Every structure is written in C-alpha cells, then in structure tokens.
Amino acid sequence: MFSRDTLHLWILAGVLVLAAVGFMTVRNLTVPPSFGQFGHYRGAALQTAADKERKLTTRGDCTACHQTLKHEMGKSHERVHCIECHGQGKAHMTACAVAKAAAKPGENLICDKSGLMPTNIRDICLHCHQQMVGRNPKHPQIIFEEHMKDNDPKDPKSPMVCMQCHVPHDPSQEPSDDAGDKDDAAKPADAATPTAAPAAATPENGGDQ
User: Fold this and answer.
1) Domain containing 13: what range?
2) How distant is the alpha carbon of residue 92 from its chain centre?
3) Closest to 68 (Cα-Cα) out of 165, 169, 201, 208
4) Are 17 and 45 members of one domain?
5) How far is it, in rounded angstroms, from Cα 66 to Cα 111?
6) Are the beta carbons of 160 and 121 closer than 8 angstroms?
7) In a domain, 76, yes or no
8) pLDDT tens per residue, the chain (209 residues)?
9) What are the CA-CA distances from residue 46 to residues 52, 102, 206, 207, 208 (Å)?
10) Are residues 153 and 70 in the same domain?
11) Among 6, 81, 156, 162, whose Cα sits 20 to 30 Å from the Cα of 107?
C-alpha cells in the first residue's frame, strides 16, 4: 500500500488532513456561538451595541423638557438638530436628573447650562448658509459681506450679528426690541418641571445630552 513511489503522496495527504482538523478545531473554539444567528455576523453583537451608552443627543431628549422650544422651530429649521447649535448636552441632562431627584414637588428645575449657549452665532449660521459652489441653489445662501451691506446691522462685527435680524429657532421671524446681541441665555428659559424631566436623562440609565 505504501510503496516507495507513493509514500510522499501519503505524507502530503496526512499533512493536509491534520491541517484541516486543526483548522476546524481552532474555528470551533474561536467562532462565537451566536455567529450566523441572524446573518453572516455575530448575533450577540446587536445587544452589545444596544448596551453601549449613547453619545449623541436627539431632539426628543431636548424637547421632552423644553416643550416651548419644540413649537418655536420654524419650518426652515424643523430638521436642524439641537446639537448643531448647542452641542452635546450630556452634562446638562445629568445635572437636570440630579436636580430632579432633589427638587420638591412643583419646583422648577435649575440645571447647569454651561457650554450650551452659542457664543458665535455668525459662524454657526454661515456653516449652512454661506454661499458655496455645488450647494443646492434652493437652499438659502448668502455672501456674508454683501449681506451685511444690504441689511446694515447695527453691529456687523459682532459674533452674534445674525440675531440682530433673525430669531435663531425660526429665522423667518425678526427678533423683538433689541434682542440682537443677546443669546438664548439672556432669554427666560422655558421652565422644566421635575415631572417633565426625561427618564433617559438619569445617570443610571446613561441618559445622553
């Protein structure tokens, strides 16, 4: 059976068999049990991803407390996420959750708003509205210098200059009185009662900002 002429072939076949057995053994030991459960990936990865703390804040996180802001958004800005102008508010939501736990019945929440109030409205607006080649011509765009000349704001060098003529949440509206250089921090914030604080904001369940 193992003649001198075929011995090398039997050795090669044995090596291949051992390699195949070794590969299958290593594969069975390393491939997760849930692999292929829902497709060509690890099924348990879905729960692993779901268990991770959210890093992004949704508009629902904000409007759960700030109901008046929900209705202030004009049609032109109804798809703009709060984080585009205010940034992530995880610290704010965590502070509100702590304040909610310590608040007395009927008491308005006083939450830390550090870092949420924009300090340069001009740059935020121009991020979307500066005229650019290739941008949809139906999208409102301006050449900033020309726009300033045409509208003659009282303080064109102010980083909050856009607010002199536009209400940020609804740019189609003009600000009342001299609200021009004031940011949202200067306006009465819509009060959030303890009962209005979203459950998603608790430190225990990893509420996002």
Assistant:
1) 7-51
2) 14
3) 169
4) yes
5) 12
6) yes
7) yes
8) 667 778 888 889 999 999 999 999 998 898 888 998 888 888 899 888 889 887 778 888 888 888 887 778 888 888 888 888 998 888 888 888 888 888 888 888 788 888 888 999 999 999 999 999 999 989 999 999 999 999 988 898 999 999 999 998 988 888 876 544 444 433 434 444 433 334 333 333 334 33
9) 10, 36, 18, 19, 20
10) yes
11) 81
End-to-end CA distance of the chain: 75
Structure tokens belonging to residue 71:
């209705």
Single-letter code of the amino acid located at 111:
C
Q: How far apart are the C-alpha atoms of 180 and 158, rounded to whole Å? A: 10
Write out the two tokens for 28: 């069975």
DSSP 34: T
181 and 82, same domain (yes or no): yes
Count of CB atoms situated within 10 Å of the CB of 94: 19
Whether residues 36 and 74 fall in one domain: no
Strand partners, 35: 42
Residues 124 and 77 in one domain: yes
In a domain, 170, yes or no: yes
Instruction: For residues 36 and 121, state if they share a domain.
Output: no
- Whether 169 and 68 share a structural domain: yes
3-state secondary structure of 100: helix
